[in-house]
Amino acid sequence: MDDGYKRISIETFKDGLRNAILATLDTYMQEVADCETAKGWRDKDLPELFKAIDAHADTLEARFNDPESKEPGSAFLLITPN
Predict the structure, then answer these.
(1) What is the phi-psi region of residue 81: left when phi exceeds 0, alpha when psi lies from -120 to 50, beta otherwise?
(2) Spatial separation of the C-alpha atoms in residues 13 and 60, rounded to whole Å
(3) Antiparallel, parallel or unpaired: β 77-80 and 6-9
(4) DSSP letter at 55?
(5) What is the mean pLDDT of the chain?
(6) What angle do CA 52, 25, 76 make, to 5 degrees?
(7) Residue 16 CB contacts under 8 Å (≥ 6 apart), including other chains
(8) b/e map 37-70, b = 16+ CB within 10 Å
């Protein structure tokens, strides 16, 4: 369907946010520690991190999908159910 919207499922959106944030945490810790193998997260941290990231993804989904949204980019993006 070519109606001008970019569509992304909420699950793909959440996975993308998770991956971006985890990569950023690692990069930040590597810079701060001046050690290229430093990590900003461990497996045991993931449940709490994902809970917060997923909650924020839901907030972004509501904001971007609001037909009255003034959010930059919202006119061209639809975050869809799975």
Answers:
(1) beta
(2) 10
(3) parallel
(4) H
(5) 93
(6) 65
(7) 8
(8) eeebeeeeeeeebbeebbeebeebbeebeeeeee
How many whole angstroms separate alpha carbon 68 and alpha carbon 21? Answer: 28
Instruction: Identify the three-state secondary structure at position 74.
Output: helix
Q: What is the pLDDT of residue 73?
A: 85
- For residue 52 the two structure tokens come to 């917060």
- Cross-strand bridge partners of residue 79: 8
Residue in this structure with the two tokens 């919202």, named with its chain if needed: 74
Rounded to whole angstroms, the Cα distance separating 48 from 27 reads 20
* Global pTM value: 0.87
Q: Are 57 and 13 in contact (CB under 8 A)?
A: yes
Q: Please say whether the beta carbons of 74 and 66 come within 8 A.
A: yes
Tokens read off for 23? 């990569």
